[in-house]
Amino acid sequence: MNYKFDFVRFRKPFLLASLIIVLIGIGSLFVQGLNLGVDFVSGTRLDFTVKQNVDVEKAKSVLEQNGFKHPNARAAGDQKQVVVFRTDNILDKPKIDKLKGDLSKEFGVNVTVQEQKVDPIIGRELARNAIIGILIACAFIGIYVAFRFEYRFAMATVVTLLYDAFLIITFFSLFQIEVDLFFIAAILTIIGYSMNDTIVVFDRIRENEEKLQPKTWEQLSGMVNLSIQQTLVRSINTVLTVLFGALSLFLLGGEGIRNFSLALVVGLFAGAYSSIFIASQIWVIWKWRSVKAGKDEPKLSPTTE
C-alpha cells in the first residue's frame, strides 16, 4: 500500500502521550481544581468599566475599604479598562452602587458596572446539568456510530470525545482560567467537530476494509495508514477554517466570549490530534485482537506485529 507516514507504527508513543496528559489533568484537578465562575458557584461577579490600563491595586484598595479582604479582582478587556471582581456573597443593589461610587471617586471617572448573580441552588443545578449534558451527548453519539458502523468504532469514538473534553478541562485547570456557561458550550461544540473528523476517518477505514480485505497485521495497519492519509488534507482544511474563526473571536471578540473562543482553539487542536492518533489507533489495536481471537471473519493466518 502506498502511504507516506506510518501512523500505526507510532501508536504506542501517541497513546502514552495522551495518557500522560490525562494523568496531568487528573493531578491538576485534585490539586487546584477548576476556577469556577459564578455560573457554577454562588456569588456575584461585577465588571466595572473604569478607564484604559486601570490600576488594579487601587481598585483592590477600594474594595478592601468596603470590607472585602484579599478581593478577587483583575484587569480585563482589550485595553485593560475593566476591573472584574468576584465574591462568594450575593451583593444587593445598595452595596453595588456604593462600590461603583467609591471607584468613580478613586479614579475620577464615571464608572459603569455590569453585574451577574447566582444563588447556591442554581449554581449546583447548572454544574450538574452541564456534566449530564456532555455525557448524554457522548452516549447518543456512541449509539449512532454503533448502528452506523460497529461497536469498535463506537467505543473508540466515545473515548476520543471524552479525551477531547477532558483535555480542554485540563488546560483550563492548569492555567486557572475561569469556567462559565460559555465553556460548556465550547466543549459541546468541540465534541461535534471532533466527531465529524473521527467519522470521516472511520468511514474511509470501513470502505478500504471492504475493498482491500486485509489478512495480516501489516495489511491491516497499512490500510489504516492509507485511510488516514486519504482524509488528512480534508481534516486539516476543516480544522484550519474553523480555527481562523475561533482565533478571530479570541483576538477581536469581547471579554465575555474570550474564554469561549480560547476553549474552541484548544479543542480544535485536540480534536484534530485525537481523530488520527487516538481513535484510529484504538480501533486498529482492538480489531487485530478480535481477529487473533477468531471473532472476526475472514480468519487470518497467525502472525505477529
From TrEMBL:
Transmembrane segment boundaries: 12-31, 126-147, 154-175, 181-202, 232-254, 260-286
Cell compartments where the protein resides: Cell membrane
GO-annotated cellular components: plasma membrane
Pfam families in UniProt: Sec_GG, SecD_SecF_C
Principal subcellular localization: membrane
Keyword Mitochondrion: no
Name under which the protein is recorded: Protein-export membrane protein SecF
Organism: Croceifilum oryzae
Keyword set includes Phosphoprotein: no
GO molecular function: protein-transporting ATPase activity
Entry's Gene Ontology BP terms: intracellular protein transmembrane transport; protein targeting; protein transport by the Sec complex
Gene3D superfamilies: Multidrug efflux transporter AcrB transmembrane domain (1.20.1640.10)
Name of the coding gene: secF
Family: In the N-terminal section; belongs to the SecD/SecF family. SecD subfamily.
Oligomeric form and interacting partners: Forms a complex with SecD. Part of the essential Sec protein translocation apparatus which comprises SecA, SecYEG and auxiliary proteins SecDF. Other proteins may also be involved.
InterPro entries: SecD/SecF_arch_bac (IPR022813), SecD/SecF_bac (IPR022645), SecD/SecF_CS (IPR022646), SecD_SecF_C (IPR048634), SecD_SecF_C_bact (IPR055344), SecF_bac (IPR005665)
Keywords of this entry: Cell membrane, Membrane, Protein transport, Translocation, Transmembrane, Transmembrane helix, Transport
Residue ranges of every copy of the Protein export membrane protein SecD/SecF C-terminal domain listed in the record: 112-287
Membrane topology: Multi-pass membrane protein
Function field: Part of the Sec protein translocase complex. Interacts with the SecYEG preprotein conducting channel. SecDF uses the proton motive force (PMF) to complete protein translocation after the ATP-dependent function of SecA.
